[in-house]
Structure formats: C-alpha cells, structure tokens
Amino acid sequence: MTLLREVMDHPLDPGYAEAAAEKAHGTRRRTWSGRAVTAVIALALGIAIVMAVAALRAPEPKEAKALDNLRTQAQQRQNQAKALASENATLAAEVGGLVGRGQSAQGSGADALALAAGTTAVQGPGLVITITQSQQAGGTSADLVQADDLEVVANGLWQAGAEAVGINGVRLTATSAISEAGQSIQVDLQPVVSPFRISAIGDAEAMETGLARTDGGTRLAVLRNDVGASVDEATSSRIDLPGSGAAAALYYASAPPTATATPTAPASGTAKPKHKTKSKATATPTRNAASATPSRTAAELGRTGAGGGKETTP
Amino acid sequence: MIAVIGLVVGVVAGLIFHPSVPAELTPYLPIAVVAALDALSGALRALLDGQFDDKVFVVSFLSNVLVAAFIVFLGDQLGVGSQLSTAVVVVLGIRIFSNAAAIRRRLFKA
Questions:
Q1: Which of B26, B91, B99 sits opposite A55 (nearest CB)?
Q2: Is the dihedral of CA A144, A148, A151, A153 positive or negative?
Q3: Looking at residues B68-88, what average pLDDT do you find?
Q4: A25, A113, A256, B66: which one has the fewest Cβ atoms less than 10 Å from its Cβ?
C-alpha cells in the first residue's frame, strides 16, 4: 500500500524539488558543458521518441511480408489453375474431336446433340445479367452474393426459355453444379468472382419477361434491394459461349431398352436421361470430393421446370 | 529551457528525416513511449510549480525510458514480458494521471 500511496501522492520526481531547493539556496552551479550535454541528450531523446512513435504507427513488417507471401502464392496458384484450365480445354477439345469423329458414323444428329448438350461452343443473341457484389459488403453472408442466388437466376433463365447459359464464361450443362466452397462460388468446380455475368442465349425479350415471372426474377429483386448488389440486365445481339469440352463420360447410365429402339427422337428423349446423367455425375468420386455442397444442378432444375426438353430445340 | 528546445528540435528532426528503428528494439517501443509521456507530464507539472530543471528533466526522461525498456526486456527473458509490461503501464499510467490532475488543478483552479 505504501507503494501505491507513493505513486498516487508523489507522482512528481523528487529531483525537481531538490533542484528547486538548491537553486533557492544558490548552491547550484551551472556550467556550459553541462548545458550542452543536457541539450544533446534532449535532442537524442526527441529523435528516439519520434522514431519509436513512427515505428509503432507503421504496419508490422512481418505481417506485410506474410501478406506479400500469400499474395504471390495466390498469384502462382491462379496462374497454375489458368494453365491447367487451358490444358484441360485443349485436351477436352481433342477428346471432343475424337468423340465427334466416332459419332459421325452415327449421323449428323450428333452435332445437334452436342450443341444442345453444351459440349460445343455456341453463339447467338440473348440476355446478359450482371450481378456485382457491393463493395461495402461485410463478412456476413447476408450481404454477399451466394451460389444459391446464381443457381436460382440460372434456373429462372432456363425456365424463361434460355437455350444455352453460361456464368462468367463457364458453360452450364446437364451435369453442371453451382456450389459454394467457403466464401467462394464455384461453377463446375471453377471459381467465379463478382461481377457475375450470367449470359443466356435465346429470345432476349421473351427471356426478360419470362424471367420476371420466375423465382429468378424475385431473387434478382432481393439481390438488388436487400443484399445491395447491383443487378444489370442487358440484351446482346451476339453472345459467345464456350463448350464444356467433352461430355461427362457415363459409366453407370445407359439408355433404357425402349429409348434405344427410337433413336430418331433425340430432342424429346433428352428429358429423362438427363436425370440419370446428373445422378451419375454426383456419384463419381472426384466430383463429390471437390465440391463442398453438391447442390442442385441449375440445368436439371430448369429442365424439370420448363418441362420436356423445350430448351434443347435450337 | 535548453532541454525543452533540444527535445523539440529532436522531435522535428525525427519527423523530417524518418529514421527507422532496429527490429530488435521494437518490443520495447510502446513502453518507452509511455515512459516518455510520464516524464513529459512530470516536467509540465514541475514547470507550473516553478520547480522545472533542465538536468532533472533530461535525466528523469532518459532513466524512465531506459528502465521501462529494461524491465520489459527482463520480463521477456523470464517469460513474463506481457505481465511486467502491464505493471509498468499501470504505474506510469497512475503517475501520468496524478500529474495531469495536478496540472489541471493549477491551470483551471478546479
């Protein structure tokens, strides 16, 4: 307690009182050298204190270094992912070419099928919906655009009569999955970031009015008003969508015997096998392991909603 | 007064030239700054009491900063660095508060 009382009651250095007493008695002698030393030390202390304050206000060099490290790593990984994606695309094109050559024997119907199935690139007029995440979005999921939102909008587009849909250049096919991994959104296991451009090829006006009547239109309004994302709908006279490459290889699914008996009706026959394709795709180990939430396929839902292969007729 | 002038010149020089602190000294900087604040508040009070003295000011300033940094260094070596830092901050904080109170009484008579 004496210590606390000492600290509380006598915060002033006793030296000041002593110096004052000495001064009062006139016993104090000041030399010029002493003053000079005092001044020099004071100067040094001033510089030191400013250095200390400046160093404390500057960001931690270690953190900055770690951040730099992470940045370069992220850059490297992105480059790797890009390289792998392009390699994948070339290989897929090769496979597609080989498959096409194999199928050409089966007639020209294969080309139309590939176009409808999304394995080959398409172009045409349509609608582009751009959803840009708000810059002020915090960490809470309530003000972030989520995979579910893209899914609902894509479904709405299918329902409204879209013939081909792509998100940020990733084509949606019968086996596409829109999933969430942490805070990032993946379309077919390829990460997509804001701004999300959902391009749909089809009758733009019909899609615009049709979309407003679906859940997709409602969700766009929610995104615009509640989530704070900016939503932009624009018609485009020409949209280029890439193909998904080779169609997913089917290991378990095969056409039922009745379907094989009528190979001449590919368009109307697509609805049922699509379901099989999807359930097969989620059953393959690679797809399951990588996607955090194997969500409903946009294409699949759209198809069931549109009812009966409406979108497969170009 | 010469000490105050020296200190001000030093602060200005530091602001202009932006010297950098060696990395191994960084843990002691916060405590050193608090100690410097304590010495400054003491000096201001002494000035208002009419007891200010250049030599006492510089010596108390220097010793405050060095002792505070040394205590933290010792604490780091013993594995109680953060606790000792807290102790130093508490003591210096109380002193700063008491000095500030005395200054306030003298300036505003309240």
A1: B26
A2: negative
A3: 86
A4: A25
